[in-house]
Specification:
By secondary structure, this protein is an alpha+beta fold. The protein is 52% helix and 18% strand.
Length: 485
């Protein structure tokens, strides 16, 4: 054992504690001579333990421990103030980074150094930085590519749409007009998808900005409802709109993006609802000075979502299952964009749903108003979150119970409108009604389901005679099962 160590009588040095610790342990004197190094230090520095005690601190810490008395004092005083990052050199002249702590041994001229090897952590951090930089570059390239592709897609879609609109003014044949209408509808769907992809790319890159402009809230709501009224009427759904009269007429915010949020939620509600209703409620939950918080609720009696599937709703390119994509279409981006837009407006969005019993999407946003209130007038008006569970879908449940009174009445009403649509050649309306009838007999027997399917296929082909024949057969089968129609 080197001189000075025996004199100190550090019993722990010869114990397994010092040798087994994962830290590098060195004892050195005021001249910078190493008196002791534990097994970890010898291994890391690639010295024999005996040889390590013949080294000096200036050999191990070449950058940080100049071989002078001033250098020694600077080194010790700096490390005694706290943990300091330094570089240790191995016997082969390679080096690694460590965090160093030094403390003097009591009543001796010896100092204890504890060093933690942080080279692996530093390498990992460097790798993480490199990956983040690479990810940032990849995202930039991806977003640029998305912008270029969507721009190139929009040009031909608009070109097709323009030519179809010109043809519609010239064509007189009803069959050809219907084909052109389908092409127009496809162009509109494609444009909506392109817009979703562009919005998503902007949101992901952080380049999306919310505008602050004054707008008429009630006119905005009228436009939103009018946009969806045609589809609601076509599907024979009920729509109720309840708007809190306390909401100021003029608000300051991003009217376009608020409209987009509502359109996304209403489009989904209508798309996934065959029978029943789609309701919209808007309330003013609080106002503090010139800041107004609004609460929106879109409730439907559609297919619903199970609790397990709700977690995936707001994930990119995700729908609750693949069959929904095949049946209803969509990119799965609508709700992702909606959630991010709501959060940009300092709000939250929630879903409350049950499989087969409809869904309720509710969200809040914060807007500004010129009708400022002082602190005494500012208040919470109503806790709209408590209102979410007030309604239920018992009426819809009864309608869906095949053979029941409500189901029979709904079938009769839809069948009457179905035959009228076939006679008038309103095939889009007829197809929608046939789909509703199929939903209403979902609990019926297999033969009845097959007849509804045949009717639906005949309607899709716009075959009047075949459609009327299948209609009569279906009506007869329904009379046999649920009684007089």
């Amino acid at each position: 054992m080197a001189f000075g160590v025996e004199r100190m009588e550090f019993e722990w040095i010869n114990s397994r504690i010092a040798d087994e610790t994962i830290e590098l342990v060195l004892l050195f004197n005021e001249k910078g001579n190493i008196l002791y190094g534990n097994r970890t230090a010898a291994s890391k520095l690639e010295f024999d333990q005996d040889k390590l005690t013949r080294c000096s601190m200036s050999q191990i810490f070449r950058q940080d421990f100049p071989d002078t008395s001033e250098g020694f004092l600077t080194f010790v005083k700096t490390c005694m103030k706290g943990v300091k990052e330094m570089t240790m050199y191995r016997s082969n002249n390679s080096c690694f980074s460590v965090n160093v702590r030094i403390q003097p041994a009591e009543e001796t001229d010896v100092y204890l150094l504890l060093a933690e090897d942080i080279s692996a952590q530093k390498n990992l951090n460097m790798r993480i930085r490199e990956l983040k930089e690479k990810e940032g570059e990849n995202n930039r390239v991806k977003n640029q590519f998305t912008a270029n592709v969507t721009h190139e897609l929009r040009t031909p879609v608009n070109g097709i749409k323009g030519h179809v609109l010109e043809l519609l003014e010239e064509v007189e044949d009803e069959g050809q007009k219907r084909t052109l209408d389908i092409i127009l509808s496809c162009c509109d769907n494609m444009s909506a998808i392109i817009n979703d992809v562009l919005d998503f790319a902007k949101l992901e890159s952080g380049k999306f900005a919310i505008e602050e402009k004054e707008f008429d809230f009630y006119k905005m709501m009228d436009k939103v409802i009018a946009t969806h009224s045609a589809v609601v009427n076509k599907k024979e759904l009920h729509m109720n709109v309840d708007i809190d009269e306390k909401i100021p007429q003029l608000l300051i915010g991003d009217e376009l993006r608020l409209t987009q949020i509502l359109n996304n939620l209403l489009s989904n509600a209508i798309k996934f609802t065959t029978v029943g209703y789609v309701n919209v409620m808007v309330g003013k939950t609080r106002q503090v000075n010139d800041e107004v918080e609004l609460f929106f609720m879109v409730r439907d009696s559609g297919i619903g979502i199970s609790p397990k599937e709700q977690d995936r709703l707001f994930q990119s390119f995700s729908q609750v299952d693949a069959s929904i994509t095949r049946r209803f279409g969509g990119t799965g981006l609508g709700l992702v964009i909606t959630k991010q837009l709501v959060e940009l407006m300092n709000g939250d969005i929630h879903v409350d749903s049950e499989k087969g019993r409809g869904s309720t999407f509710s969200f809040s946003v914060k807007l500004k108003t010129n009708q400022a209130m002082d602190d005494k007038q500012s208040q919470v008006y109503v806790n709209w979150a408590d209102y979410v569970n007030k309604e239920d879908n018992k009426g819809t449940d009864l309608i869906m119970q095949f053979g029941g009174t409500e189901n029979k009445e709904e079938l009769k009403k839809r069948m009457e409108k179905l035959v009228l649509s076939i006679e008038l050649g309103a095939w889009d309306k007829a197809e929608m009604l046939a789909s509703t009838v199929k939903t209403l007999v979902e609990q019926g027997d297999d033969d009845l389901k097959r007849q509804v399917l045949r009717l639906e296929m005949a309607i899709r082909k716009s075959n009047h005679d075949k459609s009327m024949d299948m209609y009569e057969k279906l009506k007869t089968a329904l009379v046999e099962r649920v009684g007089e129609f």
